[in-house]
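Handoff note, outgoing to incoming analyst
You'll be picking up this chain. Sequence as last confirmed:
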Amino acid sequence: MESLPLGPPFVHRNMISRLRLVFDNFTLILIAVVAAATFIPAQGIGAVIFGWVTNLAIALLFFMHGAKLSRQAIVAGAMHWRLHLLVFSCTFILFPLLALALRPLLLPLLGDPLYLGVIYLCALPGTVQSAIAFTSIARGNVPAAVCSASASSLIGIAVTPLLVNLLTNIEASGTVSTLDAIGRISVQLLLPFVAGHLMRPWIGGWMDNNRRWLKNVDQGSILLVVYTAFSASVIDGLWKQVPPSALLELTAVCCVLLAIALFVTARLSRTLGFNVEDEITIVFCGSKKSLATGVPMAQILFTGAAVGPALLPVMIFHQIQLMVCAVMAQHYARRNNPAMAA
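Most recent structure output, in case you need it:
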């Protein structure tokens, strides 16, 4: 069979596909929103209006998350307790221990505001949609991924504030009290989530049939919260606290954290005798951190100028994990398939 020519059009398409692994549309819009908040921050009555709209958007976001959660998927994956225990241990124990172990290096390198952001990143639950998507692409244990990722998100509502409190001097770090934070998170995040899940018998089919369109609502809510949070932080002097060199150092720190998490999750899953499908689920659920949960929760946990620096590590880590996990998912998918490996 005659081979197809690999001329300029093929090279151009290949370059575009590779670039899209690095910068998807949402990432570009996210960068634009941060730039908008930097040069045109919401102030005065505008900031008040954005604050109210943001609270409504957060409630809608978690209502949708609850409505998307299938009870059948929970039952199908819930019995795999060893896998879930390992995922939760990596999410809520391994990451915080890394933040503590690296403190002597990270604190002088990044300074107090960004180091607090790294602690917050390490205390967050894992992602839901992207962890499930990458597990599916890699041909892993999807029912277990649905159960583990969803449970991680719910557990994080209570565990994340406790971990932030445990790992920081809460009175000096620009955070609110733990009990107050858990109460506000329960009202603003957990109640809409539960309401959405209880409504699933009536709206679940519509949600499943409109996932592509609803993804825009999902992402729009995150963008709105980012704009509101960064506007307040910019007004309080965010970019005086965080120069460009600090962003480069923070990016390197996020790369190291992700590399350690990926290595440990893969190694532990093999050492403990999990099969390849379960290993894929553990790697993609146990090494990721949720931007969708992290952005609105930061609005509740942090006050004033602390919000922006707290969000920067989450946003950078989120993009890096998407790029790396996209490549890993394709690599896993090629196993035992010579046609795909070719």
